[in-house]
């Protein structure tokens, strides 16, 4: 059992990431199932307070990006960590296969349309990072889906995409959006176990198929793509966190701590009332009190 | 009467623009009203062909941005130049006062949502450039409309916005969007005449008010804002053109020439049929012919 220090999981700007040296499993931050529930509940309650404050302050948007291999626990983390938050202040977008219209635009367009407003938390379950992950592992997607792939780009395509992403995130940072990126780091062995579990569970196996298995063949290619991506795009203002994901509960506690700490660090305050506004409120109170006789 | 060479109107990357040395009025490129109509018709016809080709090739989007002081002729230029183009391949967006939702997002968001798809021409009648023009001249808009304006930005806000714009346009360029930016350069005296005309025309005066006049008071501030903007954001891949606008017909011919030349320069071709596809079409023809007996 150890305390959560989110810095331990942050990829520092400029670091070269070797994922084999980042653990998928660590000493648990909770002692028992009960203890886990208690910590999570505390995090969720604090998160809910902070989101109300964020909504009132209306200065910052927060964008949480979740990435990870299939079964890494993205959906579960989002559900458990964000469930206590008022849905009016929080919106989740899952990015699966792009639509025909989306494919007619540049690779950042479909996610940009769904960026969170100020005062709100936006959650991307997968994101524009897929454009340098799955698209890199399955290079043919680029052509078959008609994304422009002109000769002058071939050598530098991924560097160019990293730059587009860095530019976008800098722009958003300058304009009030705090971005946090979470990579749920799962071992191949733990994925095997989770897949075996799914096959035996009637509420899960109906959507399980050979398609889910085939990406396992590309495990090493994904690792390399993630390493390049994490190395190139983790910045002080929009950091990547590599969260050990072999234990789901542990991962959720770390994720919720990351979100709480990020919101705390924004230093938000409720809008201060001017003397005029205070006077106005006093007058309103007097009127309402008088009305009651 | 002189030939149109669009290079004469292009702001070269790195140039410092002094608008007093860019004419608002030049020798006419047409000899008579009839001659004007002939040239314009030829441009529009060529433009229509090129847009069909663009649609079929489905490789590039084209974004035309129109900026200029009130009455500079943006609407008229768009109407006359683009009227021959199939509306399916061409969409105009006019950006006026932003909505509450738009103001809750970063300053590039509302225009990005409306970027043209590949195969299409998108026209912005005013654009994200207003964010470094009217917002700069009327600095209070920034605060009153709740766009984040945190202390750390104050000294560098416009430079930061220019950078965001340059980054966006580079990204779009790399992903297949050709951007062309047209500043309709009007003299203050010609604006005065056009306003006087409007007041006497029943189809125009109903929407004319003191509001339209008051921006004339800021003429010099706008000039400075435009000069900084044109100097900072004209690039080889997304150039600004300063089009003399005191003569509307002349301006339309120059604008249409710019659009035609831009599309020509993309070097588009109809998709080539592979041997397999040719074989397929031959088989289809044989079937259809046989069906007819």
Describe the structure.
The structure is a homodimer of 293-residue chains. The first copy, chain A, has helices at 33-57, 74-82, 100-103, 109-112, 134-137, 140-144, 157-174, 188-200, 202-205, 210-214, 219-233, 248-265, 275-291; strands at 10-11, 61-68, 90-94, 121-125, 177-185, 240-244. Chain A has 293 residues and is of the alpha/beta class. Chain A has one domain: P-loop containing nucleotide triphosphate hydrolases (Rossmann fold). In chain A, helix 1 (33-57) runs parallel beside helix 12. Chain A binds chain B through residues 58-61, 101, 104-109, 112-113, 115, 117-119, 146-148, 150, 153, 160, 163-164, 167-168, 170-172, 174-177, and chain B through 58-61, 101, 104-109, 112-113, 115, 117-119, 146-148, 150, 153, 160, 164, 167-168, 170-172, 174-177.
Broad CATH class of chain A:
Alpha Beta
Amount of beta strand of chain A: 5-15%
C-alpha termini separation of chain A: 61 Å
The spatial strand order of the largest sheet of chain A comes to 1-6-5-2-4-3
Mean pLDDT of chain A: 92
CATH architecture verdict of chain A:
3-Layer(aba) Sandwich
How is the quaternary structure best described?
homodimer
The total of helices of chain A stands at 13
Q: CATH topology of chain A, what is it called?
A: Rossmann fold
Which secondary-structure class do the elements of chain A indicate? alpha/beta
Which superfamily, in CATH terms, is the homologous superfamily of chain A?
Answer: P-loop containing nucleotide triphosphate hydrolases
How do the helices and strands follow one another from N- to C-terminus of chain A?
EHEHEHHEHHHEHHHHEHH
Poorly predicted runs of chain A: none
User: Largest interface, by Cβ-Cβ below 8 angstroms: which chains and how many residues each?
Assistant: A-B, 34 and 33 residues
Number of domains of chain A: 1
From the spread of the alpha carbons, the general shape of chain A counts as globular
């Amino acid at each position: 059992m150890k305390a959560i220090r989110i810095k331990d999981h942050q990829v520092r700007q400029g670091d070269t990431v070797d994922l084999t040296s980042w653990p998928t499993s660590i000493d648990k931050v909770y002692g028992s199932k009960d203890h886990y529930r208690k910590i999570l509940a505390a995090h969720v309650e604090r998160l809910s307070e902070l989101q109300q404050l964020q909504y009132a302050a209306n200065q910052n948007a927060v964008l949480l990006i979740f990435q990870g291999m299939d079964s890494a626990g993205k959906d579960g983390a989002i559900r458990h960590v964000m469930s206590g938050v008022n849905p009016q202040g929080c919106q989740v977008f899952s990015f699966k296969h792009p639509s025909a219209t989306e494919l007619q635009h540049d690779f950042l367009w479909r996610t940009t349309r769904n960026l969170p407003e100020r005062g709100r938390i936006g959650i991307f379950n997968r994101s524009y990072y897929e454009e340098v992950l799955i698209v890199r592992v399955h290079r043919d997607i680029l052509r078959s889906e008609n994304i422009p792939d002109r000769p002058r780009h071939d050598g530098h395509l991924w560097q160019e995409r990293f730059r587009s992403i860095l530019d976008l995130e800098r722009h958003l940072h300058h304009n009030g959006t705090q971005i946090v990126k979470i990579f749920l780091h799962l071992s191949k062995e733990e994925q095997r176990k989770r897949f075996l579990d799914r096959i035996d569970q009637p509420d899960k196996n109906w959507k399980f198929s050979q398609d889910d298995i085939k990406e396992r063949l590309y495990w090493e290619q994904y690792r390399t793509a993630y390493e390049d991506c994490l190395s190139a795009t983790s910045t002080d203002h929009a950091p990547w966190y590599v969260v050990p994901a072999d234990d789901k509960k542990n991962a959720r506690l770390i994720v919720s701590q990351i979100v709480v700490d990020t919101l705390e660090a924004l230093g938000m305050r409720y809008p201060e009332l001017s003397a005029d506004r205070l006077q106005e409120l006093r007058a309103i109170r007097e009127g309402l009190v008088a009305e009651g006789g």
